[in-house]
Amino acid sequence: MASPQLAQVNAHLRGVAQRLAESGGDLVKSRDWMIEYSRAHPSTQEVVAEVRRIDLAGVACEWLLAKGCDPDKRLLYIHGGGWTAGNLDSHRPLSARISQAAGAAVLAVHYRLAPEHAFPAGLDDCVHAYRWLRNNGPNGAAPARSVFVAGDSAGGNLTLATLLACKQRGFPLPNGAIPLSAATDFSASSESFRSRAAVDPILAAAAAGIPMIGAAYTQGRADPLSPLCSPLNGDLRGLPPLLIQVGDAEVLLDDSTRLAAKAKSAGVDTTLSIYPEMPHVWQLFAPFLPEAVSAIEEIGSFVRKHG
Known about the structure:
alpha/beta
């Protein structure tokens, strides 16, 4: 039986899913409801870090600096939202909690969204922010001692795509990467889209929707199944250590399990953490949901180990 906290989170997510369905594809309404995603309890909106807004050549970003964090240990955080929604506000509390857990300066990036900006605009913004982060900290120009990339859902996809793009272009790779509930395959063909549909409170209908989102994201500029769009199809050899977190109640479960298996086969130091009963991007519900706190602590331990 679900804990009272998880029951409340799932009820909240079912309500968000219903309102997203009722929006009838209205992009403005959909974006508004995505902002509500994490608001299952007032505590999830607490920001436990200093916030410094910056502009990177027109790309809105912000530093999240928890007390005592190391400005030379840096993490790029890429928010989720189906490539069409989400922003700095929607993920600020999570980004701040990661800064606190990891003792790192977190740079959150609000990349350009589809459909106004088709692939590879959003990915280009993430790669640009990552490269800038390596040589610039919260206090000015300074080389990083260690760098990480993390993101959830579509941001998990972009986390992996950023690694693959940097690898292709000969750019230095980070010390590690942390895809959370990542969408890794626009074909939506994994078995978990069927086996977890009855228990996923937010993405139960995603099997039909993800290919359509892929078309909106790429708009004919790339094959949605190409590696920089569907990282599961990429060459993972040479990637840095990965911490892959996913909930067992997600239709996207196999997007993570298949990625982990392929990464391990490619010789990548891979940790797969499957959290029982957890829904999509449950990390957003800290500190209300104990499992969210545990997941963020695991992220902090991973960064400390590799940085």
